[in-house]
Amino acid sequence: MQHVVPFVALALSLALPPAVATQTAPNTLTAQEEAAGWQLLFDGRSLDAWRGYRRDTLPESGWEIKDGTVRTIPKVQGADLITRKTFGDFELTWEWRIAPGGNNGVKYFVTEERPKSPGHEYQMIDDAGYPGELTPQQWTAAFYDVLPAAADKPMRPAGEWNSSGIVVRGTRVEHWLNGKNVLTYELGSPTVKAGLAKSKFKDQPGFGEKITGHIMLTYHQDECWYRNLKIREIQ
Fold first, then answer.
1. CB neighbour list of residue 56: distance below 8 Å, 6 or more residues apart
2. 32-233: CATH number
3. Pairing state between β 90-98 and 224-233
4. Which residue intervals of the chain are DSSP H helices?
5. CA dist 66 to 73, 75, 103, Å?
6. How many CB atoms sit inside 10 A of residue 132's CB?
């Protein structure tokens, strides 16, 4: 494992001031974050905030806690994780790194009533080294298969830690990567409708609509690490 570096809070648009380096231990909240209403989704020791998708318990395989991270165990019969709680308007931040050639993602607006397309995906992939052809809608920080992230996004290479964030407020959704807003879209807008019409989700009823839903960590058979998973509900 790489040496664990201190978490640097994302300068998201709502709750937090511009990011500054801190000496806060990983998977903990600062006093400022606690006062702003942030909650940990992972404390470095347990997955109590999570369960398997469409089940009440954690999957028997596919995930482990190692060195203060949540790690996917590659090439096993794993399954997706979802939060026990659901969220409507929120800010979510997390840090992640992926193995060379790897693919994973974080989904939101997740429902268990539509298992073929449970929610919108913030794509996490080795843009440079993935062994297959990708469209811009399938690169890191995209609204997967629907809308691309900015071409000049500050992506770090596979094997290095990235910081990501999702902000949902009303119909506005933002994707953040390493402190930069790299995609903003409005649910129900002509741009989103056009992207959905060209995507594999075009025939999925309800996909693309805002719901109060779970957060999902996907299992895609590739090795990926997560830490500093934090969420703040917006009232």
1. none
2. 2.60.120.560
3. antiparallel
4. 31-35, 190-197
5. 11, 17, 20
6. 8
Contacts of 30 (CB under 8 A, 6+ apart): 9, 22, 24
pLDDT in tens, 113-128: 999 999 999 999 999 9
Question: Residue 88: which of 196, 187, 195 has the closest Cα?
Answer: 187
- Give the tens place of pLDDT for each residue, 198-233: 999 999 999 999 999 999 999 999 999 999 999 999
Residue 104: closest CA among 228, 200, 217: 217
Amino acid at 9: A
Please state the domain extents for the chain.
Answer: 32-233
The pair of three-digit structure tokens given for residue 80, joined into one six-digit string: 């997706």
Round to whole Å and give the CA distance between 166 and 149. 13
Q: Which residues lie closer than 8 Å to 235 by C-beta, 6 or more apart?
A: 89
